[in-house]
Amino acid sequence: MGIFSARLPLTRLTYSMLAVGFIMQCVGGRYTFSAVPLPDGFVEGLGLTRNPIDRVGHVLQGFISAVFLREVVLRRTSLPPGWWLAALITGTCLGFSAFYELAEAWMVIAFYPDAGPEWLGTQGDPWDAQWDMTMALVGAIAAQLMLGAAQDRALHARS
Question: How far is 71 from 104, CA to CA, in rounded Å?
Answer without folding.
Answer: 28
